[in-house]
Structure formats: structure tokens, C-alpha cells
Amino acid sequence: MSSPTNSNNTTTDALSIMELPSILTLLFERAQRPLLTEAQGPIGLFVRYLRRKPERGLAVIYSVDEIRTAGKATRTNDPNRSVSLTLDEQALNGAHILFTASQAQQAPLAVQPTGVVRVDDLGLSAQAFPADSSLPALATSCDTTQNGALFQALAAAARLQLKDDAWQLVTASAEPVRYKPANRCVIRYRLQLEHTAAAEQKHLTIFGKVYANPEQARSVQALIQQLYDEQHHEHGTSFLPNPLGMIDALGLTLNEAIQPADTLTEATKLDTWHRLRTGTRALQPQLERGRGGDIARSVLPSEELILTAKALAELHTSAIYPNKNAPRTGAKEAKRALERAGLIAGRNPEQAEETRQLAGELAQRLTQLQPDAYCPAHGGFKASQLLFHSHRVFIVDFDGFCCADPALDVGYFLAYLRPSGLWYQRPGMRQWFEGAAQIFAATYQQAMLERGVALSTVQGIVERSRLYEAALLFKIATRRVNRLNSPRSKELSAMLREIAACLANEGEE
Prior knowledge:
Phosphorylase Kinase, domain 1; Aminoglycoside 3'-phosphotransferase, Chain: A, domain 2; five-stranded antiparallel β-sheet; globular
């Protein structure tokens, strides 16, 4: 790739990220592939996802929409109207793009069989959903044509969930709900079924996840099945949705969708627990205000926190051990914390010394950790991985399921439990978080004791979780860096104070 600093170019000619939509549109025009076939007028590209990670390049997902009156667009979040662009590491210097608009206009391009538009000279790829060169099974995983492999697998999954072979699949549709280019995609399948004996119809939802690596899909689904069976044997229920099989060739797993009953009375419709809620929504801070707007009290989601803590204790005492001989150690988290601190320091020079000092102290302590035992751990345990319904909690997304210090999951949850308002000193946020954290930690300790774990072991988990909290707070702090957002010194200062508090309180109960 020729450099924009050669004799024909200057660094001022280099592209900015704001100019990428015009380059993307140009590439699809050159490839004679319309971005929105049904468009009646001009279209716009609007950023939905942007990440820049070291050695992994830049990934941007745009929504494609028609420009409406007054230059406005609907800005749909429909993944079917998404187009993604990736820049290889070779095309970047930090957050700066190393080619010009004229180079993008002139460089030779190729349209791959998957539909991906590739410009090798610039290290640039563009693809309209569901084309994905690194996730080649995505398009097939969205094709619900009758009698196809996916259609047959969905029919079998529905009969398994309904426990009745008389149900026949009539129609199916696929709705992508969470897409990570080149990695995986979660798809909601809406099914219409007919009963061959009872002249009855039913609508059912099933979730699928297609992986770039089919072996990962097989491994994850096998472990989920083991956990599910263990839970049902022990309790008759499970904190996991029912695994419903997979299509090995596609790397596509199928699982039960947690959903409300078909019919609800007017009374139950008003009951929060009869509605499906994500953990992110259920664990949002709520404050009651008195006269003059003063905060009267924090409303804590006590039942949700108690259910979550008990489910985590069950997971940590499971007999299902993934990768038992290669645990996720404190030393590994120390390495990640140092890498994240380096990113933060590079973007925030005024706070670089404090960031590196805290990370160094944290890494030293994490590296020295020696838990009593490594246990089954979720590996990414936070509110967004939880669903609440019918006074139950369900844990999802076991892609990071591992053998680890159980303090990792406890610290992970508590780090992400902190509301964003905490970083801006908003009234009531500190009280809400501390009250919620106390309920979760106390319930977890009691649940572990009831499951036969020694008191000293449980106390050690809670003590060490403060270090993992600090490590995950560094991860939270890198979000602005990875999204190329402008630094916010006050926000970072608040996070660093929180990290320092975790280090100071490590070992305290």
C-alpha cells in the first residue's frame, strides 16, 4: 500500500473517520452493488458500532437509511439494513487512517464470492449484511426457506422444546438482533406451527447464535447442555435457557427463548415479574424523591440481586469444569489490566502516571493471588448476561465459560453494577450502588456456605473480588478509547478513584 506521506500526498490528505461513509458508498457504487435496493431517494449511513483495538484494526457498522425530509432519516437498528467496514492494522496509525480519498477511489477492488468488497492495497473490507467473509455461515443461518437445512433444524428444535412431535413448522423468519462482524451473530427465529392432531396453531421464538469457529460453537453448546442437565437433575429447573441442538456444519447453536406466556390476564400484565426484563433494565438505579426533588430513598432491586447471587453460587459449585487444566488466572487478568492501562494512558497524558501506577500495583497483587481452588466460572458475568422472568433469573452467553477463581465473576458483576451516574457524582448513585452491592455479596456468601463451601474459602473469594473489580473497571474505562470518543478527564478521575478504593479495601469485608 502506498503511503499518504509520499511525494504525491501529505498527511493532511489522509482520511478522517467522518469521511468513511462517502468512501463506503463509493466502493459499493464501483462494485455495482446498491446499499439499499428499495430506496426511493438519497440514502445515509449512520454509525451504530465503532471499535478500534490494538492489532485488530478498526470495525464500524453503519445503518443504511433513506434520508427523509429536512435531511433526517429513520435510523433503523435492523441488522438487515447494516453495512460494516473494517480497516486492517496496516491501514492505521493509532486512530489515524493511512490512505487518502483519491487512493480509495483508484485502488483496485474485488467482490468475493461471499459478497464482500475487498481492497487489498488499502487493507479495507466492506460488506452488506449478511455477507461476512469471516462468518461465511451467516447468510445461510438467515435463510429460512422451507425444506432447507435450517428450516428442518428449527422444526426439530421446536418439537423438542414443546415436547410434542405432532407440531409441524409452517413458516419461519430470521431477525438478527446482535451482530459482531467476523465473530458471531445472535438471531431471533420466529416460528409459526400447526398441530397435526389438535387443529391448533402456535407461535414460538427460538434464538440462534452462529459462530465464526464451528468448533467453538460445538464446545459451548456441549457445556451448556451439561450444565442444563445438571441443574435439572438437582433442582428440576435451570438458570440456563433450554439448549435445543445445533447445525454443526454452520456453527449455529439453537436455544430456548425466555418469553412470556401466550395469554396473560390484565392483572398479570401489570406485574413486572410476568414481563421479560433484561438484567441491564432490571438492575438500573431507581430513586424515590420527596418534596423539592430531594432523594428520599434508593429503591433496590433486592429480589433480582438475591436470585442472581444464588444462581452464581450454583454455577461456582457445579461439577462441570471447562478447560480445567488451563484456568483463567489472576496473572492473565493482570496482563490485560496493564494493556488497558497503557491504552488509557496514551489517550489521557495528564492522568497517565496515576493510571500506570494503579495498574502496576493491581497487576502485582493479581499475579500473586492463589485461590483455594479454580471453579467453573462464567467469565463475563454482568447484568447484560441476565434475563428475569416469573421470579427466576436466567444466565446467557457462556462463550467465556472457563475454569477460574470464582472471585472473577463476583468482581465482574460488581464492577458493571456501578451506574454510569457514579462517574459524574450524580445524587443517590453511591448509596444505590453500595446498597445493591451489599445485598448481592451477602446473599452470595450465604448461598456458598449453604452449598458446603468453607467459611474461610468464601471470605477469600469476596476479598479477592475487590482486585478483579479494579481490573474490570480498567476495562470499562477503555470503552471511550476503543470507541475513539474524546477523553473525559473527570470521568476517568472518578474511575481511577474507584480503582484505588478497591485496592485500598482489598481484604476487607
